[in-house]
Write a structure and sequence with these properties.
The structure holds 2 protein chains of 2 kinds. By secondary structure, chain A is mainly alpha-helical. Chain A is built from 9 helices and no strands. In chain A, helix 3 packs across helix 4 (about 65-85), helix 7 (about 130-145) packs across helix 9 and helix 8 (about 150-155) packs across helix 9 (about 160-185). Chain A is globular. By secondary structure, chain B is mainly α. Helices cover about 70% and strands about 0% of the residues of chain B. Chain B has helices at about 5-15, 20-30, 35-40, 50-60, 70-80, 85-95, 100-115, 125-135, 150-160, 160-180, 185-200, 210-225, 230-245, 255-275. The chains are: A mainly alpha, B mainly alpha. At the A-B interface, helix 1, helix 2, helix 3, helix 6 and helix 7 of A face helix 5, helix 7 and helix 8 of B.
């Protein structure tokens, strides 16, 4: 079913549509929260909180085109609030590989999942070493695929800053990623 | 075959486009001519690869400096395929000789493959059930399927059809002409007169005024339509007197009519003689 039709049914109060809506977006919401807070359990609580908030304010849900940026903005705000409450600005990225393995995408063989989990773990660690702004730009642009304008509005920085930072953040991440990779190979 | 003939055929020889006879002759010539052999097989590089790289680095260090910074500016565009062909070949050339930049580009390519996959992370099998349990305590107020937004959407869809749109515009225009072209004050006054007359019980003392009041209201509307502005103003003033009288709950209606009748006669006479300015203010209720 198309997203606009699904949204309309959710607004009518169709519980099945709401369930389909939750299933459709839970991975993405949880994924963003997880990248922000760095702990699966906290991210699950945050994602639940986000869905409950959406449910309680269905009249404010935008149309299909604006839905994803709106949900990601709510998730980001909730994650930052959580981090502030935890009084630890940088999230703890030191996530055991086996936890990532559990969270890995289905459909891969165990060896591929192991390899994928290992690469993800390296990317997480490389992300940890970026500045907060660069990390957020990578999260929102490269991972979530939001347009630059949305990111600028969300981060409340000029569009030019996001543009110039975007490539710099990618280069920085690639440098840290290759450094971690070669260090892993050496050890 | 002499050297001039061989050099004329050199391109064809290298592309293997000569006939078997020409090729055999060319080979025979190469066996005896060192100069032409040099043309076909250039001598080995004068510098070994490492020494060549070192020399390049030394020259760059004393001139423009290493090009790695420039490559970092272009690396993302190169990985995204946004560079034009000449620029991309220059980047490719640098990458062949610079292991650091080559590793950086490989890292960028690997990140491009990994990062989008990080958007979706499965929260676990219990997550959906927990969200549904948390939200089922507060069921959504079920709206009627034909909600306001749906009706609005239906009308918008309807108005996108040209015929409906033209018909609606036509009806709207007619309604606008009818509504906004009516002389409101006169209508209001005429309506008030008719109301007074209709409220009167049969046989009461205002009953005789009924026909006159109706005629007056019709005349006012007629004046408005014919554009007889001056007469309309006069009639309106007369009607204002009657309207003011309606507020007195029909008390002294006969005297009021006589007063009104006299007033109207006098004003029409003045108007005809040109003694009254139609734009002057209407008198207050008597």
């Amino acid at each position: 079913m198309e997203l606009s039709g699904l949204l309309e049914r959710v607004r009518w109060g169709d519980e099945l549509a709401w369930e389909a809506f939750v299933r459709q977006f839970q991975s993405r919401i949880f994924g963003l929260a997880y990248h922000y807070v760095g702990q699966a359990e906290d991210a699950r609580d945050l994602a639940q909180e986000v869905f409950i908030r959406i449910y309680q304010h269905l009249d404010q849900v935008p149309d299909a085109e604006g839905l994803l940026p709106w949900m990601l903005r709510i998730t980001r705000n909730a994650s930052l609030d959580h981090l502030r409450r935890r009084k630890a600005r940088p999230p703890q990225w030191d996530i055991p590989v086996d936890e990532l393995f559990d969270l890995g995408a289905p459909g891969l063989s165990p060896e591929e999942q192991q390899l994928e989990a290992s690469r993800r773990s390296l990317v997480h660690r490389a992300l940890q070493e970026l500045t907060q702004l660069n990390r957020e730009i990578i999260l929102l642009k490269e991972i979530q695929g939001l347009p630059l304008e949305e990111i600028a509005a969300m981060l409340e920085v000029p569009l030019g800053t996001v543009k110039s930072r975007s490539n710099r953040a990618r280069i920085e991440l690639a440098q840290k990623f290759t450094a971690l990779e070669s260090a892993g190979r050496c050890s | 075959m002499n050297c001039a003939t061989f050099q004329a055929l050199l391109d064809g020889y290298q592309k293997q486009m000569l006939s078997p006879e020409q090729r055999a002759e060319a080979r025979r010539h190469l066996e005896v001519c060192a100069e032409c052999r040099w043309l076909v097989q250039p001598p080995p590089a004068l510098l070994p690869r490492e020494a060549a790289l070192e020399l390049t680095s030394a020259i760059l260090a004393r001139t423009a400096g290493p090009a790695c910074a420039r490559l970092r500016d272009l690396a993302c565009a190169y990985v995204d395929g946004d560079l034009d062909t000449p620029q991309a070949s220059l980047v490719q050339g640098h990458l062949e000789h610079c292991p650091d930049c080559s590793a950086l580009v490989l890292g960028l390519q690997e990140l491009d493959a990994v990062l989008p996959g990080l958007a979706l992370v499965e929260p676990g099998p219990r997550f959906t059930r927990e969200v549904l349990r948390a939200t089922s305590r507060d069921p959504i107020a079920r709206k009627h399927p034909y909600s306001w937004s749906e009706l609005r959407e239906f009308w918008w869809r309807l108005f996108r059809r040209p015929r409906i749109c033209f018909e609606a515009a036509y009806l709207g225009t007619v309604a606008g002409v009818l509504v906004f072209n009516l002389p409101h004050p006169t209508w209001h006054a005429g309506h008030a007169v008719l109301e007074v007359a209709q409220e009167a019980q049969p046989g009461s003392r205002v009953r005789p005024l009924l026909q006159s009041a109706r005629r007056l209201a019709v005349a006012a509307v007629g004046c408005e339509r014919r554009g007889e502005g001056a007469l309309r103003v006069t009639v309106q003033r007369g009607l204002a007197v009657v309207e003011a009288g309606a507020g007195r709950q029909l008390r002294g209606m006969s005297a009021l009519w006589q007063n009104f009748s006299g007033e109207m006669t006098e004003r029409v006479r003045r108007l005809k003689q040109g003694q009254e300015d139609p734009s002057a203010e209407a008198p207050g209720p008597e």
